[in-house]
Amino acid sequence: AGVALDNIRGHGLSLTDTHIPGFGDKLTAAGKLNLFHNNNHDLTANAFATRNMPNIPQVPNFNTVGGGLDYMFKNKVGASLGAAHTDFINRNDYSVGGKLNLFRNPSTSLDFNAGFKKFDTPFMRSGWEPNMGF
To answer: Rounded to two decimals, what is the model's pTM?
Structure first.
């Protein structure tokens, strides 16, 4: 369940509570700020903070914070950068990606996304792994 508020200038706020069976609850506050917009270009910064509240007795509550930048050219082709940090396990997540809009009307959008993501902790690191989806 959640609530979101967006305005015509591309700024927005949201608050979401998610129940994950077998884990617990997550409460996320997020915001986006449109930095630049004209007929051809759109650049938006985003940030979030998540409070994870496991119902597993051995796991304490913990936070994840992150942010990123999204760029779109003519609402058709775009790129994104993102990073997040989870203090409890000292984990950092990174992502870089591209987006191609395949279909858009006033109420629907279908995009193809492809990119790379990685994580690192004091104990383990991943390489840049490909990811894609619609």
So the answer is: 0.85
